[in-house]
């Protein structure tokens, strides 16, 4: 089988969904615990700083455009240290994948099917990931293209439907958190949102057909993914309040439970679960 290649558009979509990942469900509570209603400000700053991180990743990729991140490590650091860091990197990705499968199991058992064992969800999802890996990066990229429009459509509908529940008082006063809390929360946000983007160097630019467009895609995917998380965080605070958001394990799922239009459109929180499963599928595969 020849080398598999994906388009820059597909890479942009992968970057977007990968950056969202588990953050769409867990980030609102994680950063609201410390800085309350200023969480949305932290998210904005975190996304801006993440672009600098992406620039660093692109600079690293430009030095070895035909190599993956693991191969580049060996070339730059030498055979011994390169293999050592590569083993550490691969080990971390496997541990991260296991953590994501755990999140899937906990979420589905807690919110959707409480009588089903956690392991059952993790096992079913792992089978999907293994099968996608077997089919290769090209098929995976096409599946991301299929999931992306559905993800964005559901997200837009979700935002429109929850907007009537917004209470602007929940986000006031602003800039109340201390600078120390802000700094630590920014690091926490970036650790979930942008630090893991280094994994994309396994496919960028070595498996992308147009490198110049892929560079733009790296930025665009990060920006749009960041905007999605900023909106989710802001809506969580505006609708649920900072205290309620911080106390919930999955605030954005609780948002979907609040949707009620004319006693007709109700209990559509499972669509929120579908959005999350789309993004976590991308992150677990990578």
From TrEMBL:
Q: Which family does it belong to?
A: Belongs to the amino acid-polyamine-organocation (APC) superfamily. Spore germination protein (SGP) (TC 2.A.3.9) family.
Q: What is one process in the GO biological process aspect for this record? A: spore germination
Identify this protein by name. Variant surface antigen E (VlpE prolipoprotein)
Instruction: Enumerate the UniProt keywords alphabetically.
Output: Germination, Lipoprotein, Membrane, Transmembrane, Transmembrane helix, Transport
Q: Locate the coiled-coil region(s) and give their ranges.
A: none
Report the principal subcellular site.
membrane
Naturally occurring in which organism (per UniProt):
Lysinibacillus sphaericus OT4b.31
Membrane topology is: Multi-pass membrane protein
- Does the record carry Ligase as a key word? no
Question: What does the entry list under GO cellular component?
Answer: membrane
Record's Pfam families?
Answer: Spore_permease
Family annotation (Gene3D superfamilies) = Amino acid/polyamine transporter I
Localization of this protein = Membrane
What are the leading ranks of the lineage? Bacteria, Bacillati, Bacillota, Bacilli, Bacillales
PANTHER family this protein is in? SPORE GERMINATION PROTEIN A2
The membrane-spanning stretches of this chain are: 6-27, 39-60, 80-107, 119-140, 146-166, 186-206, 218-243, 264-282
Does Lipid metabolism show up as a keyword for this record? no
Q: Hey, what's the signal peptide range on this chain?
A: none
């Amino acid at each position: 089988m020849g080398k598999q290649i994906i388009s820059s558009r597909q890479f942009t979509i992968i970057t977007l969904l990968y950056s969202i990942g588990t953050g769409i469900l867990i980030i609102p509570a994680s950063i609201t615990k410390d800085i309350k209603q200023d969480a949305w400000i932290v998210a904005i700053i975190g996304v801006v700083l993440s672009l600098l991180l992406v620039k660093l990743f692109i600079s690293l990729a430009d030095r070895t455009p035909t190599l993956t991140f693991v191969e580049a490590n060996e070339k730059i650091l030498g055979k011994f240290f390169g293999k050592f860091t590569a083993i550490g990197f691969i080990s971390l990705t496997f541990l991260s994948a296991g953590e994501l499968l755990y999140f899937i199991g906990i979420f589905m058992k807690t919110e959707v099917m409480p009588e089903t064992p956690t392991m059952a969800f993790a096992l079913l999802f792992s089978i999907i990931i293994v099968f996608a890996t077997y089919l290769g990066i090209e098929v995976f990229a096409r599946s991301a293209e299929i999931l992306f429009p559905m993800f964005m459509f559901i997200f837009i509908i979700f935002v429109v439907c929850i907007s009537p529940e917004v209470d602007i008082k929940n986000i006031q006063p602003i800039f109340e958190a201390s600078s120390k809390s802000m700094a630590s929360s920014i690091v926490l946000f970036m650790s979930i949102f942008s630090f893991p983007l280094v994994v994309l160097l396994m496919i960028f630019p070595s498996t992308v057909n147009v490198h110049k467009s892929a560079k733009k895609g790296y930025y665009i995917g990060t920006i749009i993914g960041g905007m999605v998380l900023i909106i989710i965080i802001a809506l969580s605070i505006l609708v649920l309040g900072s205290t309620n958001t911080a106390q919930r394990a999955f605030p954005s799922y609780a948002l979907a439970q609040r949707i009620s239009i004319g006693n007709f459109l109700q209990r559509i929180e499972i669509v929120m679960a579908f959005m999350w499963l789309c993004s976590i599928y991308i992150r677990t595969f990578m």
